[in-house]
Write a structure and sequence with these properties.
Layout (H helix, E strand, L loop, with lengths): L6 E6 L6 H10 L8 E6 L4 E4 L5 E4 L4 H5 L2 E4 L12 H13 L2 E4 L4 H6 L7 E2 L6 H7 L4 E2 L5 E3 L3 E4 L4 H14 L1 H11 L26 H8 L8 H8 L3 H12 L3 H19 L4 H7 L5 H12 L3 H9 L3
Parallel strand pairs: 1-2, 1-5, 5-6, 6-10, 7-8
Antiparallel strand pairs: 3-4, 9-10
Helix pairs in contact: 1-6, 6-7, 9-10, 12-13
Amino acid sequence: MPVSPLYRVAVLVLEGAKPLDVGIPAQVFTTRASMPYEVRVCGAAPGLVTGGDGLSYHVAHGLEALAWADIVFVPGYRHPDREDPPRAVVDALGAAHDRGARLAAISTGAFALAATGLLDGRRATTHWHYTRALAARHPRIRVDENVLFVDEGSVLTSAGAASGIDLCLHILRGDLGVAASNHAARRLVAAPYRSGGQAQYVPRSVPEPHGERFGATREWALHRLAEPLTLDVLARQAGVSPRTFSRRFVEETGCTPMQWVMRARIDQARELLERSQRSVEQIAADVGLGTGANLRLHFQRVLGATPSEYRRTFTRGE
């Protein structure tokens, strides 16, 4: 049975738009029976928009879609550091934000948001190749070049194209919960979340191997979160010394092994709160956090809410 749309999503295609950047939010939030989103792809005006990499787009909607949307995605586009988007586009983005819409940039789409002034005084990111240009062109923005995305509440930015998936899943997680986000990730054959920063993708003078060296160990741990998972246990499973495991794990993921384990436990607890009626004490034991008090402590620290408050958020109206 189709779900009534709760959120309206506009994907704003600018001249020179990058195909992958356009496709990510269009596919993640595409209108389907299981997803309470309605998606409209738009441009500065309806009709043909010349894209990047040999593709063009025929969009059915103009800037009126921004006045309709709850979330506006701005995909990356060609030569963003040379000039701002048309004034009408910048004004429409600002008006959408003033009306309460969230603005989310993928890759160099951050330059379009920067042109509105909404990123001034805030953290933001963009593709690593353009971080210095963004900082130079908009010095009031606190550009963070070592993250996959930045969530500043009503304005969000992400790094290179693939990190647009991370941003979209993050938004989906906040809107509908971990279960829905994980389902979407499986559909996309993508990681539910990545903890690493984009620095691992920046070319170095001495090439270093990156990737999924410890992917099997992380998968092994995800099935054993209720068990004691110490650094020694994880290193032994990976077949390396604890010191080597810790150093290489940080290089690969951008966080320590224990930070990653805690994040995985919190996410599993979130899913159990969303999908089961198990008590907080039972869930704490299920995910390896021991006691309900410990689970409440970490929930408050990570999410700013208690487990009970979180559960009510995703069971309202049932």
